[in-house]
Amino acid sequence: MSGDLPDARAIALFLDMCAAERGSAANTILAYRRDLAGASAALGGRLGAATPDDLARLIHGWRDLARASLQRKGAALRGFFGFLVREGVRRDNPAAALPRTVAARPLPRSLAESDVDRLFVALAERPATPATLRLTALVELLYGSGLRATELVSLPRHAIQPGRGHAIVTGKGGKERLVPIGGAALRSVAAHAVNVAADARYLFPSGAKHLSRVRLFQLVKALAADAGIPPDRISPHVLRHAFATHLLEGGADLRTLQTLLGHADIATTQIYTHVASAKLVELVNAKHPLADAPDAAQDRRR
Fold first, then answer.
1. What is the pLDDT of residue 273?
2. pLDDT on residue 213
3. Which domains does the chain have, with CATH numbers?
4. Residue 148 a catalytic site member
5. Of 172, 192, 210, 241, which residue is the catalytic one?
6. Residue 22 annotated to the active site
7. N or C: which end of the chain has fewer CB within 10 A?
8. Closest Cα to residue 69, out of 19, 104, 112, 26?
9. How far apart are the first and last CA of the chain?
10. Catalytic status, residue 158
11. CA-to-CA dists, residue 201 to 130, 156, 162, 211, 288, angstroms
12. Active-site residue 237, yes or no?
């Protein structure tokens, strides 16, 4: 591959490589496609021939974006030009000097257990229609198993079997992991599955495909409103965070949490340690030798 390769073709080949060699998630590839197509448009269709100054102007134009978005766009450009150099399309890499923006890792939003209880009370008060049974199963799996939204809506029809307390889920990068399925979730899924054809491809079908992530987001927001919880405080991802937060508060260790959430790096899981601060203080005050009554502690130091 050499010569003056059109941007559209170069971007398509780079994304093919991301999927085939890196195992990049579909959402990552879609985001890179948007980022690179936008960069190409901004440079008049000459992204592949961009100079360092061209890229500097692009980055300057993105200066008001969120740090995470800026970081992703920079990663897309570095990956794209690195690919062109490896494939012999370019000899130089104009992205080599791009700053590597380190996104501040935000603390995950979560819900109190009482908020989760309110969600289930709101579900129980709805008529037991197929739509209610489906939503109950969705919420049980988000909160009870910590599934990502994409993992949940794309579950195969028979991924969850009666009496089996686990399921194999395909997560980011096509990696499989075992997730727990509690008794309440099993019952909810069984009640929902009665309304799904046995030969359906997905557990949560919608037309010829499965329920979309956008629709799942809307359903969860509407349920929150019914439960008296501000909709801007909740999303499918917040329920996944609640799963992790409440497990950690209940005594789960980070390595177990990492496995259950499907995090490739323990550092990603460590963002949850902030939620256990009160529990840790309580533990130290109850168990540490210096946590005696003040008078006893003073006597010990005399």
1. 59
2. 92
3. 7-86 (1.10.150), 113-280 (1.10.443.10)
4. yes
5. 172
6. no
7. C
8. 104
9. 80
10. no
11. 18, 6, 18, 12, 55
12. yes
